[in-house]
Design goal:
Oligomer: single chain
Largest sheet: 7 strands, mixed
Structural class: alpha/beta
CATH class: Alpha Beta
Helix content: 25-40%
CATH superfamily: Vaccinia Virus protein VP39
CATH architecture: 3-Layer(aba) Sandwich
Number of helices: 8
CATH topology: Rossmann fold
Strand order of the largest sheet: 3-2-1-4-5-7-6
Radius of gyration: 16 Å
Order of helices and strands: HHHEHEHEHEHEHEEEE
Strand content: 25-35%
Number of domains: 1
Length: 202
């Protein structure tokens, strides 16, 4: 499958970063080392519906498509209209659906595409820059959107979201990828127990 050029990706990504640095967290797209660490956690044989939050210029999106089953579906949820247009024009694949929405709408987006639950949700949203209420809402919606045995795969340039992930998902495994600009924290989350917000079960 043809992919957008790396130079084009980097130029668009850098331009968007300088306009909205809190939305991206880094001036350079994810490295191949980070992509491999995140996607190694995916069981491609069982992954029927995958959701990606904040695909940006499609650095990880293209790799997901390369590994996905032919009958699987990838829903990329992006708020930046430039990225949405870039992905729709640059990654033409019948399995890919690029949606200009908030990650908080993930369950509605799944329903609109004929899916009840997601096998995996992959997120590069810089959660530490979001208001707490918005961050918690996205995490709760993400947990609710996962099918039994599903997982929420998160990469961040800060570990500050860890406690929120533990409270909402229950089980969180950690990783770290040094060979990325910036070095990235990885969190592999699976629902266990009852999610808690402000010390109360929800």
């Amino acid at each position: 499958m043809p992919k957008p050029s790396q130079n084009g990706q980097r130029l668009l990504f850098a331009r968007a970063f300088f306009r909205h640095p809190r939305m991206l967290g880094s001036v350079i797209p994810s490295s191949r080392f980070l992509i491999r660490e995140v996607l190694d956690r995916v069981d491609w044989a069982r992954a029927r519906v995958i959701v990606e939050y904040g695909p940006g210029v499609g650095t990880i999106t293209g790799e997901i498509l390369d590994h996905m089953r032919e009958d699987a579906m990838l829903i990329a949820i992006e708020t930046n209209p430039e990225f949405v247009r870039y992905l729709r024009e640059g990654l033409r694949d019948h399995r890919l659906h690029v949606v200009q929405r908030s990650a908080a709408d993930v369950r509605a987006v799944l329903r609109e595409h004929g899916a009840d639950k997601a096998s995996y949700i992959i997120s590069g949203i810089p959660f530490s820059t979001l208001p707490r209420a918005q961050r918690e809402h996205i995490l709760l919606e993400s947990r609710a959107a996962l099918e039994p045995g599903g997982a929420f795969l998160v990469y961040q340039f800060s570990s500050r979201v860890l406690e929120d992930l533990r409270r909402v998902f229950g089980k969180v495994e950690r990783g770290f990828e040094l060979f990325n600009i910036l070095p990235a924290h990885l969190f592999f989350c699976t629902p266990a127990g009852t999610p808690k917000i402000n010390g109360h079960a929800v």
